[in-house]
Amino acid sequence: MNAPISHARLLPHVDQQEIPPALLQALQARFGQRLSTAMAVREQHGRDESPFAVPPPGAVLFAESTADVSDAVALCSQYRTPVIPYGAGSSIEGHLLAVRGGLSIDVNRMNRVLAVDADDLTVTVQPGVTRKQLNEAIRDTGLFFPIDPGADASLGGMSATRASGTNAVRYGTMRENVLALQVVTASGEVIRTGTRAKKSSAGYDLTRLFVGSEGTLGLITEVTLRVYPLPEAISAAVCSFPTIADAVQATIETIQLGVPIARVELIDANSVRMVNAHSKLALREEPMLLMEFHGSPAGVQEQAGTVQEIAAGHGGKAFEWATTPEERTRLWTARHNAYFAAVQSRPGCRSITTDTCVPISRLADCLLESVAEADASGIPYFLVGHVGDGNFHFGYLVDPANERECDRAEALNERLIARALAMEGTCTGEHGIGLHKMQFLEEEAGPGAVDMMRTIKRALDPHNILNPGKIFAD
Amino acid sequence: MNAPISHARLLPHVDQQEIPPALLQALQARFGQRLSTAMAVREQHGRDESPFAVPPPGAVLFAESTADVSDAVALCSQYRTPVIPYGAGSSIEGHLLAVRGGLSIDVNRMNRVLAVDADDLTVTVQPGVTRKQLNEAIRDTGLFFPIDPGADASLGGMSATRASGTNAVRYGTMRENVLALQVVTASGEVIRTGTRAKKSSAGYDLTRLFVGSEGTLGLITEVTLRVYPLPEAISAAVCSFPTIADAVQATIETIQLGVPIARVELIDANSVRMVNAHSKLALREEPMLLMEFHGSPAGVQEQAGTVQEIAAGHGGKAFEWATTPEERTRLWTARHNAYFAAVQSRPGCRSITTDTCVPISRLADCLLESVAEADASGIPYFLVGHVGDGNFHFGYLVDPANERECDRAEALNERLIARALAMEGTCTGEHGIGLHKMQFLEEEAGPGAVDMMRTIKRALDPHNILNPGKIFAD
After folding, report:
1. Going from the N-terminus, what domains does chain A have, and what CATH number goes with each?
2. pLDDT per residue over A251-284, tens digit each?
3. Are B433 and A203 an interchain contact pair (Cβ–Cβ within 8 Å)?
């Protein structure tokens, strides 16, 4: 959990509304013990991995069914009271914070895998199922769900933020892997947004409209997902490079050649140093790429051979292979621990995390200019990236009490985003807008497109009760 | 072109509004010769590949730029007059027909490839560029655009109907391959719906909202697309099977095993017979699969070996290979000629074409029950399918003057759709709703979801001028 920050540049517009006593009474009558107004419970639901400090929601409902969600929203709709869906609490842009007060609807008890249609390569889950839980549940079927944002996020939350992560370069993001949703609308009505058919041109793509809508258009109560046959062969490799530029160039060539690499992650020397200290490892403290190849045994070997050749052309060395699950886990430890190792490298610090994504040909320019700026700032940072997609994250490790430092870090983020937008990229590849990126969305999409989003929001949520105050100013 | 039909079951609700003289004058002042009210021109823009006979639009504008489209829509908006975008005219569900009258905006002169960003695997085109034109334009870059709906459709039209076709099993549909759009809204404003970043979680997914919106939410004036490196090796194969069931089972196993096959098309014995007669060929008049494999030479060989083994297990025989472009073209002739061969097999007939798509495990059941019904009906038909996606098309070849026959064919389509919906499939995999499938959309999506679509339509097009009367009743 990031330490909260009370930095002026980051303060969201908070205007909390109390839950009307009559609504509270009606909710209590309907839900009994499952409704909580205990401060500890509310506080737990009033923070996420973002740096914002906002007072908690007025109450928390532990929903157990679609009917629970539907009834709660219908009641809140009557009283024009905000509702905020809550999954794993791992979002990092302030999506969950009750800036207008209201009811937090916790869906963690809605954690059943409803259907595994192995023959169709689809599953249907309740929104509180996490990605790891899903993969446990389907392990015996020879299938897996590839989307891996790092955190063991809930699949409802991952849908709502259009999450992606390390496997997206091969398997796509939640955008490509959600087939259909069940959604509770602003009035409490329950709709389905699609079927289990792999493709369809039946009317507007409501599924994709809800994927990434951050709880502002409806509450997701079921998710139908694509899953994949476990590859016959998986092989992981780590390779060090003299410079970040070399690692990035090797990545760009790999993508441009069309190698179907499953993962290609950049870890900068800072991160390696932090991971070595944190996990008592002795990795070469140089920029490295972590890669994974999926396919037939021959196919994996062929892909890996091609990439090894490309890497060698850019000074890649210490190409280390891992084919057993244990060896792979060891290699991926560095990547998975990077965030925690970084935050622990500076006691009391918090990380201001960036999330730009640019067309692959601009990746080197965007990244290297930003590294130069970060180095010049003197602020400690780490850098990791899903570089095969052109997406990377700086974590600026700031002292939350040091306003000047926070200010400098935010200024770095702003310049990075301006740079990415000038290169036809996006301010957020996978974290979403939440509270933190509203201004950047306006710059990226333009006022016309944001107005269109707002028009859709108003049409589908006329009383502005669905996670209000997020994505754009209300 | 299908012969028109005046069959009661197919008659859309036509309520045409005249273009107000003052608007016509304003359009003429702005566009001069590019605005036409000549009956021949209007009639050409008043029909597509659908069976509906609707009087033509009141005028046709040959737009040459986004500014043209924007100005025309702004003028029509002032006068509450409908606008209908027109690309290649190859849609088959009545999308283009002027059921409420108005102005047809022909975008065929907007046919420039605006940017080829080969290093990023993206291109940006004007909406009148066709898929073949695009592939010609990028041939020297070593890239290709895979989406192939059969017709040489415009990329604006393919976006607007969420088209797909033979390569979708490997490369996805327009849903997965449109990165961003430039759109003229109902008021004539110009917006962009995304960037060239491969992924983004920046606000609502307006791109996917417009893909498949059939001109009812805005007019597409630019399309940014993903393109792919031409595979190092391509190999095509044709294989005959004793029964449709065998061919379908071989397909299902191929998909379930995760073989990254690029194309797998079913052609039934009727279609082969019609193609043989039409093109003087001597193909075995049995159900066949046409397949294509893309990858490295070794990868292609491996995939093909796996599929050949699967096919042999289902009585597959006469596995014939083609690796040169000429041989491949010869093999694909049967598939590409199927529609025309079929329509010519019964002089004066028209084809009522179905478009269901079901989860792959239900494909055999859905298909075989429908074949039995079609056989029992006595109506000549052909059957082709993008079976790797669970999507297939019957073409019922009816005499348009024979109302009973048309009725029986429509009844077959209705039962097929009911069957597909019961199997968690969709009434349209790739053709769209248009005029023909409104009732089925209601059955598939449910009134709540269709209401939501209507709410979005009303919010974004308050005067209902954008291709009104399509997708759902207005």
Report:
1. 8-106 (3.30.43.10), 113-229 (3.30.465.10), 231-331 (3.30.70.3450)
2. 999 999 999 999 999 999 999 999 999 988 888 8
3. yes
Cβ of B325: how many Cβ atoms within 10 Å? Answer: 10
pLDDT tens digits, residue range A69-105?
999 999 999 999 999 999 999 999 999 999 999 999 9
pLDDT, position A446: 97
pLDDT band, very low/low/confident/very high, at B1 (cuts 50, 70, 90): very low
Distance, CA of B190 to CA of B72 (rounded, Å): 12
In angstroms, rounded to a whole number, what is the distance separating the alpha carbons of residues B146 and B167? 6
CB contact under 8 A, B202 and A163: no
B290 φ/ψ angles, rounded to the nearest 5 degrees: -105, 130
Q: What are the tokens at B198?
A: 């491969």
* pLDDT of residue A241 exceeding 70: yes
Rounded to the nearest angstrom, the gap between the alpha carbon of residue A4 and the centroid of all alpha carbons in its chain is 20
Report the gap between the CA of B421 and the closest CA in chain A (Å).
8
Output the pLDDT for position A407: 92
A42 CB neighbour count, 10 Å cutoff: 18
Dihedral pair phi/psi, residue A424, rounded to 5°: 65, 30
DSSP 3-state assignment of A179?
strand
CA B104: distance to chain centroid? 20
Q: What is the pLDDT of residues B291-343, one digit of tens each?
A: 999 999 999 999 999 999 999 999 998 788 887 888 888 778 778 888 889 99
- Angle, CA B316 vertex, CA B311 and CA B317 arms, to 5°: 135
Comparing CB atoms, the residue among B211, B298, B440 nearest residue A205 is B211
The one-letter code for the residue type at A120 is: D
pLDDT band, very low/low/confident/very high, at B12 (cuts 50, 70, 90)? confident
* Positions of E strands within B227-269: 228-229, 233-240, 263-267
Segment B338-373, tens digit of pLDDT: 888 999 999 999 899 999 999 999 999 999 999 999
Supply the pLDDT for residue B162. Answer: 98
Closest CA to B107 of B96, B94, B98: B96
Q: Please list the residues that pair with A327 across neighbouring strands.
A: none
A460 → closest Cβ in B432, B440, B455? B455
B212 interaction partners in chain A (CB closer than 8 Å): 201, 203-205
Helices (H), A227-360: 244-256, 269-279, 297-312, 325-345
Name the residue facing A201 among B161, B420, B455 (closest C-beta).
B161
**B235 beta partners:** B293
What is B387-413 written as a DSSP string?
A: GGGTEEEEEEEE-TT-HHHHHHHHHHH
Q: CB distance B191–A452 less than 8 Å?
A: yes
Residue B6's pLDDT is what?
A: 47
**Which helix (H) or strand (E) covers residue B255, if one does?**
helix B244-256
Q: What is the mean pLDDT of residues A302-322?
A: 91
**Nearest CA among A77, A127, A121, A125 for reference residue A102:** A77
The answer for residues whose C-beta is within 8 angstroms of residue B5's C-beta and 6 or more apart is B51, B52, B53, B350, B400, B406
Residue of B73, B226, B183, B113 lying closest to A445 (CA atoms): B183
Using the predicted structure, report yes or no on whether residue B2 has a pLDDT greater than 50: no
- Distance, in Å, from the CA atom of B392 to the CA atom of B265, rounded to the nearest integer, reads 9
Amino acid at B297: P
How large is the angle between the packed helices B363-377 and B244-256, nearest 10 degrees?
Answer: 160
Question: Residue A136: which residues within 8 A CB-CB, separation 6 or more?
Answer: none
Does ipTM come in above 0.85? yes
Q: Do the chains contact at B258 and A229, CB–CB below 8 Å?
A: yes
